[in-house]
Amino acid sequence: MTARIGVITFPGTLDDVDAARAVRQAGAEAVSLWHGDADLKGVDAVIVPGGFSYGDYLRCGAIAKFAPVMDEVIGAAGKGMPVLGICNGFQILCEAGLLPGALTRNEGLHFVCRDQWLRVENNQTAWTTRYETGAEILIPLKSGEGRYVASERKLEELQGEGRIVFTYAGDNPNGSQLDIAGISNETGRIVGLMPHPEHAIEALTGPSDDGLGLFYSAIDSVLASV
Ligand SMILES: NC(=O)CC[C@H](N)C(=O)O
Questions:
Q1: What pLDDT score was predicted for residue 79?
Q2: Is residue 136 annotated as a catalytic residue, yes or no?
């Protein structure tokens, strides 16, 4: 069986093509989903990719959460479908209430674009089983609103439940609380991260192929549950 992974395109999405390519490179079928779609075409997992959905008006992700396809994603996520939000996708998942907290303006108020080392803090999520906990991976970061914030209580909960999935290694690029680069929901099926694993799937075009592990992990998770 081949896993089928949906990749959503909103007006203003940039990274859907690379996300689909990463899915194929990892051995799954990439299925295009449009923001207006009212069904998920039977996919096994969904990626909400990066970019500037609806021009980032109001707040990053604030309009995308009202797209018809997001109702479907919320419904499927509630039944355990693996969902990955990358950068703008992470912002959308927070706005939609699938992940807690918010992504706010970078501490330095500048857009940051650089290759970034991350530490894998939890390899027990649907998107990280192919990594060792404590592994350091190098993938691109490119965002203006990447500073993760949440209440003290929520941060303690995330920490206590092992839901901080990735942290920034080395210096913190945006002032994220607890150096958070990515988190998961309670079940570990929904993960969001600011840096871009889909841009690091082969040494020729990215800083590494370290990002592929997320896509392999999701495929393993889908195939294990059939
Ligand atoms: N690369 C992205 O997805 C960018 C996300 C968002 N538009 C920001 O600047 O924070």
A1: 96
A2: no
Q: Which of 72, 145, 198, 199 is catalytic?
A: 198
- Separation in Å, CA 130 to CA 55, 101, 135, 211: 34, 26, 11, 11
**DSSP tally for the chain: helices H, then strands E:** 5, 11
pLDDT score recorded for residue 226? 74
Q: What is the mean pLDDT of each run of 10 residues along the chain (226 residues)?
A: 96 98 98 97 98 96 97 98 98 98 96 98 98 98 98 98 97 97 98 98 94 98 91
Q: Has this prediction a pTM greater than 0.95?
A: yes
Catalytic residue among 60, 87, 121, 145: 87
pLDDT of 189:
98
The alpha carbon of 26 and the centre of ligand 1 are apart by a number of angstroms equal to: 24
For residue 47, the SS3 value is strand
The confidence score (pLDDT) of residue 225 equals 86
List, chain by chain if needed, residues with CB within 6 Å of any ligand 1 atom: 50-52, 56, 60, 87-88, 142-146
Q: Is 60 a catalytic residue?
A: no
For domain 4-224, the question of CATH label 3.40.50.880 is answered with: yes
Question: Ligand 1, atom 5: nearest CA belongs to which residue?
Answer: 88
Exposure string (b/e) for 18-29, b if CB count within 10 Å is 16 or more?
bbbbbbebbebe
